[in-house]
Amino acid sequence: MPDLFNFDDYDKCIFYSTDPEPTYCRVTIELVPKNLSQSNAIWRIIEKVSSNKKNYRHDLLRHGICASKKCGKYEGTIPECLNRIYKTKYGHLGLDVENLLSAFSLSDNIRSIINQNTKNRTNNYLPALQGIRFFTSVLVIAIHAIMSSALVAVSNPQTVEKSITSFTSVALISHLILFQTFFVISFFLTTINFYSHLRRAHYVTLEDVLRKIVKRYIRFTSAQVILIALQSRWFVHLSRGLFWEQVMGSEARLCSEMWWTNLLYINNFFFDHGLCLLHTWSLSADFQLTVIGLLILWWTQKNSKRLFLVSGGLLLVQVTWTFFYLGWNNFEFGTLYTPESLYGFTFLFRKEWQATWTTTVSNLAGLAWGLLFGYIYSHRQNNTFITKKSDHIWWYAIVLISTFGTIFFSGYYKTSDYYSSSRWFAASYGSIEKVVCVFGISLFIFGTLQGLGGFVRNVLEWAPMHTLGTLSFGAYLVHFVFLNIDNALKRNPSYFSPYLIKASSNKRNYRYDLLRHGICASWKCEHFNETISECLSQIYKSKYGRLGLGTRINQLHCETTESGYVITTKDCIIWTVLGTYVVFVVLVSVWLAIYGKKSVKNEDRKFSSVGNFLSAFSLVDNVNSIINKNVRKQGTPNNYLPTIAGIRFFASFSVILVHGLAAALQIATANAQAVEKLTTSFIAVSIGNFSIFVQTFFVLSFFLMTINFYSDLKRVQHVTFRYVLRKIIKRYIRFTSGQIILIALHSTWFIRLSRGPFWEQVMGPDHRQCNEKWWINLLYISNFFFDDGACSLHTWYLSVDFQLTLLGLLILWLTQKNPRRLFLASKTLLFLQIVWTFLYLRWNDFEFSAAFTPELLYDFKFTFSKEWQATWISTMSNLAGLAWGLIFGYLYSHLQNNAFSTKRVNVWWYAIVIICTFGTIFFSGFYKTSDYYSNSRWFAASYGSIEKVVCVFGISFFIFGTLQGLGGFIRNVLEWAPMHTLGKLSFGAYLIHFVFFSIDNALKRYPTYVSPYLMVLYSFIDEEYKLIPNLFGFDDFDKCIYYSSDLKPIYCKVTIELLPKDCS
């Protein structure tokens, strides 16, 4: 069949074209048989596939054409030219082009497609509501993200057709019905507030009702006005691209034309004309139901029986209206989100979706159940309805059956053959589905507020949920903007995963004499009899010979339909062990939850020694210890160091953010020149320098180690060498337990998750290194073995930390009777780092630290750079963290009761901290981007030797100051209760974050597009770059391997070195 989606390269057509007026067009072509009376075999296949509404319409082709290239010598108009091209292209298949459905500019084409924290009074008594609101928001946003991945063209439509209509996918998307939770919470709180006000004032006037409505309007509108203004004017100018007009252009036009429907909260009645901020239909429905609900409460305030009667009437109206609307129009009970309906979100224009989802009548159940349960709770909140254990079980059963029962039955029904058979059944089930599901949601909310739910309730009442729940409204309001921008920025059709020369002389650029290409060898070499290597060599010689260049293949890696990784006995053993461990953890957690006896006062569980050992593996106990700030062991330093967890969290966040930016450039990029300008700009280099905050972990580690040591020394008078060994073993176990699992997964399972053009490049090295060099990680000496690559490269930090821990404990043990020796040893460590760094940099004529140029970031080649290894991951280059940690740890343990906080001290403290930390960071950014960077190696050696020492002093002084009462607002943020939990999670987050970055890169099907709007750091592209051969070029991996008609398809990644043709 003809390609459903096919797009020419947008950037080459618009930005790199030599044509004075480059034109790029998106076009939709409708195919028909040439001879209507005698349809050919190809047309019959197209007709058969397209007749299944679970597939795309394969008679509608959506293509992107560089019209200035294809129609450059054609004398007619562009529509005539493209008509002729497509008639010629598909004529030999017995197909004809009926018409071009879309206009031939992006604007007209898309137009035709689209035109079809503070707690309030109530929350003080309803602690679980914010948690429910947060988890509902996360679920809805996640499902919207999945759906939006099919909003634009995809490179593997067959995969979408199979996966998006499977039971799992449909059942997952059916969870959108839990959006009704927002309506229930809204009217539940409205009712409780109303009766609270009624008890105080004895009568609620119509003026009070109007005041409530006006407040609701202002709350909704203030945010919407800003979003509509940005959407209609600014967002559309952020960038340009293949899908930009389709996604962002339509939103801008609709927000310019239909903004008034949003501000009047009637946009859920105007879907036929398109919708500005389509997800805000919920705000309109909510506002309309709020007006109705407040009027009902006002009318029934003197007679509560009326409230129950009216609520029952609302439920009856929804059931009756939905039944007759679906039955009368012969509609399905809910929209099946097919690939065709998700493309361009055309399901928005389907009447059955509008009728059963966005209308006011179809959401009356949220209002009715919210009023009923709100009334019951406000009048009986001190009464416990459920006391027996059997009542708890019934509550769980009713909630699960009412909510998830309806969701999964809906998923089963929509994917069965019965879906289109009985429309009366569809009308019957569709009329009660929402009513039953919303009842389950309401009963769940009511039950958690009555003390039911156990562990689930504890999670919902966790302190940070108040903040996260408060942010939910804003997150919901803006999430579609980010999803739209992400789709609009794509330079190629999305890959839908069922899981997820002159320039080269400047070292700040890529090497343009090394081309990294992905080649479908079975296409390019089908007429060659030579080997693949000879074939590709011949192709590149012919291609670049006319430019006076010779070629040489440096690297060649080819893949076929068979994976190169065979499951071995070792893999099976590791999978079995990990699986057994997971089962063990689950069983222990269940056992402790069921048989764990508690004391009368509900305090700590009482177990035997075996039980205490097993409790360390309990999921429930571990989660509770993380989220409950009161589960701190008495006597530990953290009782007296409230800012430590917050500092640890923000340091982790900074380091992970920088790693994420670097990881984005690990693979090929679609706009290499933009990356070159980006990575050499002052802002980008300064942001990259924030990775120096990894030193915070070293300082915290040895700061706490020193305080613990002197705390124990005061208790026992003398610390033995056995104490030192015990501390070292505990440290080893803590680090190793997580590393073993990570290494096991890297060496076996991760490599088999998927395949693609970048999969081997990103995941392959870690797989091989973790198979061969796992032992250096477990011996914590990996920072000495980077020359040949490393397993989980970011774990160099653990090796350095462990080595410095050994050294630090020995120093503390040797100096315990004479603190002066401790200061002398610490000063010696600082002196050693400065002298060693200076001599190493100067002797080798190195820069003071590696500049992260595009070429070094590609494949993370900077990890093989001697200056990076010397100044970043060696033990000697990190002695400052140990030295300052020992010094400030000693000072704090002996002076913690002394107050230094005065206004004058505060000012000096701020000045020293800012100059020592951010001063070194930004000066380094300025120096690396200046012309002076490569001129004076004496200066580089001098500055490089003291940079870390000064910066780490600033970090240590900051930590010490916050614990002495300095910092004001900053200290308050660091001491915020949720920071305790976030700080505890930091180590785990650091340990696994690189896995997610790697998998994200490896799953990409095309080179990464670095958007200028994100950094706003370059504004032009040099003319000479247009003459340089493509640095990165990749054929479609999936078409080559999975959809090829070749019996043995082969896809090769090749690195070609360009040479002058005449070397003399």
UniProtKB/TrEMBL annotation:
Membrane spanning stretches: 131-152, 172-196, 217-236, 278-300, 307-328, 355-377, 393-412, 432-456, 468-485, 573-596, 649-670, 690-711, 732-751, 796-815, 822-841, 872-895, 907-926, 946-970
Domain Acyltransferase: 128-485, 645-998
Keywords assigned by UniProt, alphabetized: Membrane, Transmembrane, Transmembrane helix
GO molecular function: acyltransferase activity, transferring groups other than amino-acyl groups
Highest rank taxon of the organism: Eukaryota
Annotated Pfam families: Acyl_transf_3 (PF01757)
Keyword Transmembrane set for record: yes
InterPro entries, per the entry: Acyl_transf_3_dom (IPR002656), O2_lipid_transport_reg (IPR052728)
Protein name, entry field: Acyltransferase 3 domain-containing protein
Organism: Zophobas morio
